[in-house]
Amino acid sequence: EKAVNLKKDLAEMQEWMTQAEEEYLEKDFEYKSPEELENAVEEMKRAKEDVLQKEVRVKILKDNIKMLATKVPSSGQDLATELNVVLENYQLLCNRIRGKCHTLEEVWSCWIELLQYLDLETAWLNNLEERVQMTENLPDKLDAVNDALESLESVLRHPADNRTQIRELGQTLIDGGILDDIISEKLEAFNARYEELSHLAVSRQIALEQQLQTMRETDHMLQVLQENLVELDRQLTSYLTDRVDAFQMPQEAQ
């Protein structure tokens, strides 16, 4: 009777493993929204816990069959053969579910990481847009133009590492058919805004550099003129002091 019950337990265990395999491993999943992906991750975590909890039952079966084999070798041998099959299938099921759970957790982590990088780069784009707007309607002063140019250039020196991560993470998920529509839409919007703002910022940078160069040249010319006027004033004052006749002066002084 004990052998019959153990044989029944082994059959039930094998049936449960078959159902678990069909439910968790053979089912095709489509992750078209973050909610679907998150639900799949949570479901697979529960599946892993459920399968691992059966380990106690498997151990009890194993111990009972070994005990029976010592008392009734013939019955125990048959059950031991069936037990080995169940143990092998159980270990395989555990490994596959662990693997799928790990994969889904990695995919979810990849999605969260992508969102974080997008948030960082969006904040940078907002800052860049603000700096570009600050270059408009500047006072016609060299210091103001120079400060605006330096401020814009400091933002433009932003490294490209985050954008590389966004591209690679997005492509990895899209290639796996995971959240591909949502990710494609997000990346398209981000890349379009990045190209537009970057082009505008570089154009403003070039314009400010040219404006700054013109202002510096003008300042230099004014400085030279001012120095010449000061020298001329000094000479004229000297001529007047010495009561020099106008016709005795150099032509330019006259």
Report on this structure:
This protein has a single domain, classed as Methane Monooxygenase Hydroxylase, Chain G, domain 1, CATH 1.20.58. The model has no long low-confidence stretch (mean pLDDT 88). The longest helix is centred in the middle third of the chain and has 62 residues, at 73-134. It has 254 residues and is mainly α. It has six helices and no strands. The N and C termini lie far apart (136 Å).
Q: What brief labels describe this structure?
A:
Spectrin/alpha-actinin, 254 residues, 85% helix, rod-shaped, Methane Monooxygenase Hydroxylase, Chain G, domain 1, mainly alpha, Spectrin_repeat
Topology:
Blueprint: H1 2-24, H2 34-71, H3 73-134, H4 142-156, H5 161-175, H6 180-241
Keywords: Coiled coil
Organism: Arenaria interpres (Ruddy turnstone)
Protein name: UTRO protein
Low-confidence stretches: none
The CATH topology label is Methane Monooxygenase Hydroxylase, Chain G, domain 1
* Integer-rounded radius of gyration: 40 Å
Give the % helix. Answer: over 70%
The CATH architecture term is Up-down Bundle
**Helix/sheet category:** mainly alpha
CATH top level assignment: Mainly Alpha
- Total of domains: 1
Main β sheet profile: none
What's the helix-strand series?
HHHHHH
N- to C-terminal separation? Answer: 136 Å
Mean pLDDT: 88
